[in-house]
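Priority: low. Protein: F-box domain-containing protein. Input follows.
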Amino acid sequence: MEEDANFALNFDSDVFESSFIYWSNLPAHLKVQILRNLPYPTLRSFMFVSKECMTLASSVKTQAYGVYLQDHPFDYTNIVEIKEASAFITVYYIPPEAVGVPDSHKNYTLTFVDVEDGGCVVKRRRDKKGRSIITTGVRYQNEKSSSAAVRVFFQLTKNIKAQNLFIEMTSENAEIERLLGELSPVVPLVCGKLTIRAKSKTVASSLLRFVSPGCGLDIYFLDHFSEEVFMDSAFCDLEAVRQAPEIDTEAMIAVSDDQLSLFKAHCLRIRAPYISSKGINKMIMQWLNNQRIIEEILLTDTQRINEAEVLEGVDKDRILSDLEISKSPFLRERMENMKSGGSLHVVIRNFSGALILINIGADFCNLMNPHSKVLLYSTNTTRDDDDDDDDDDDDDD
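Result:
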């Protein structure tokens, strides 16, 4: 996707007043090295000075905790002090001198505001010399705030190395669906974890076309606890889904037994109405034969689970006896914590000596590595306990 020339937004440059008369004489690699030491707002301003500046700045990947896109006014009205704000993008960038320092990110926020006679404008607030300055940038004549924000989000993330990307689309917007269908996924979304919160199935599935395999996925249907299938079986065949190390969703997913066995996720939470005892058994056998890593897997709303089918093919000597468990206070404690739900509680040891705890109920299955340091979910399978969000909605002005 080519950079939109209008994306300069006509904001005042975030630079100090100075001059460097030898800039034009420097080789390109030294110019890039200098740009790597600029804070993100200054780098963005520099990018639109000239075509050469655009080329140089585009080769710099800014480190960021995350980039957040929301198509509605959440708790950000204090940023721009305008109630008409319709969409927001916030880049929580890490200053070059603070890379590696915990909680050192600063924010760069763009606010998209629909105007009465059509289109939208982009505003930004900056704190300068103890006071807040709100500046108005480019106007998109024929585009509403939500679709303009999506387009700018993809432009921004091309030049950002983010740990987290967050997209929240609260309405079913035909314009956004059309835009996502037209955009080319040549430059994928690359991050540690992508979080999608959407009302529209089409928007959520379209966004996954842009995801680079290996990215963790948190996908939420904004119609909480709907019994409607949010992602069909085609979703489960996407390489980005199969290769995701973590998948967390409160939505109904139409994953089959065979598709589930192809998932690489070691942390997985889904509502899976088409998963049967055979699909769970296949995962256990993969783990038993060192073909799968399991940290924690929680499948709920499954078909009725048959305990015998779940453990079919598992040698009895792989199942720890009550005596073995009683000798380990740690395992006893973990097992006791799991007894709040389910009718079958066993511990299995695989051929490498690793353990998993298995908790099975009528329509759920919880597989857990008791020694894991990356457990994401509670072993309590009630839905109220499944709603722990990791969203960072704080603004660091």
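The CA atoms of residues 96 and 313 lie 54 Å apart. Residues 25-59 form one domain.
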